[in-house]
Amino acid sequence: MADNTTPAKQSNTARNILLIAFGIILVGFTIYFFVSSYTKSEGEQAGVLINFSKKGLVIKTYEGELNIGGTGNVPGTAQFNDHFLFSVRDAAVAEEIMKYNGKKVSVHYRQVVNSFFWQGETNIWVDGVKVIQ
Fold first, then answer.
1. CA dist list (Å): 83 to 45, 49, 56, 70
2. What's the pLDDT at 3?
3. How far apart, in whole angstroms, are the C-alpha atoms of residue 5 and residue 14?
4. pTM
5. Which helix (H) or strand (E) holds 108?
6. Residue 124's beta-bridge partner residues?
7. What element of type H or E holds 23?
8. What pairing do the DSSP bridges indicate for beta strands 124-131 and 80-88?
9. Residue 18: its pLDDT value, please?
10. Which of 72, 35, 56, 26 has its CA nearest to residue 119?
11. Pairwise CA distance, residues 118 & 40, whole Å
12. pLDDT digits over 55-88, tens only?
C-alpha cells in the first residue's frame, strides 16, 4: 500500500494547526487583557504625598506613595503608618501630582484585577488629585 499523503497536504495540515493555535492564543490573550482591566474598586484616598517618581529600566512608569496615617498614637509608643502605593498612567496627572510632594492630598483611584508591566508596578491607578486644606 502506498502512502496517499503528499508533502503539500502535510504542509497545509501543519499550517492549519499553527493558525488554529495562534488564534486560540490571541483570543486567550484578548480575554485575559479585558478581565485584567476590570475595575475591582474605585474611590478616593487621602494622605500626605511622601514619594512620587518615574521608575523603570526600560519602560518608565509613574509610581507614588501616600502616608495615610496609622495606629500607635499613644505617647511613648511607636507609630505604625499605613502607606497607599499607586501608579499613574497619564503624564498630565503625573505632572499635577509632582507639584504636591509633602502636602496632604486626596487622589481618585481605580483598582483593577491585574496590571501589565507597562501600566505600572501596582494594580491601583490614580487618575485625579486635589489638595486638602
1. 11, 10, 21, 9
2. 56
3. 13
4. 0.71
5. strand 104-112
6. 111
7. helix 7-36
8. parallel
9. 92
10. 56
11. 19
12. 988 889 999 999 887 665 556 666 677 889 999 9
Q: How far is CA 56 from CA 31, 60, 72, 81, 117, in A?
A: 27, 4, 35, 26, 10
Name the nearest CA neighbour of 84 among 114, 106, 64, 70.
64
Mean pLDDT by 10 residues, the chain (133 residues): 60 88 93 83 93 90 88 62 90 93 93 83 92 88
What span, in angstroms and rounded, lies between the C-alpha atoms of 66 and 45?
A: 9
Fold of 40-131: OB fold (Dihydrolipoamide Acetyltransferase, E2P) (2.40.50)
Domain boundaries, the chain: 1-36, 40-131
| pLDDT score, position 11 | 75
**Cβ atoms 64, 88 nearer than 8 A:** yes
User: Which residue type sits at 75?
Assistant: P
> What is the C-alpha separation between 125 and 38, in angstroms, rounded?
12
Please state, in angstroms and rounded to a whole number, the distance separating the CA atoms of residues 61 and 86: 11
Contact between 60 and 120 under an 8 Å Cβ cutoff? The reply is no
Spatial distance between the Cα atoms of 121 and 1, rounded to a whole number of angstroms: 63
C-alpha cell at 2: 502506498
> Count of residues for the chain?
133
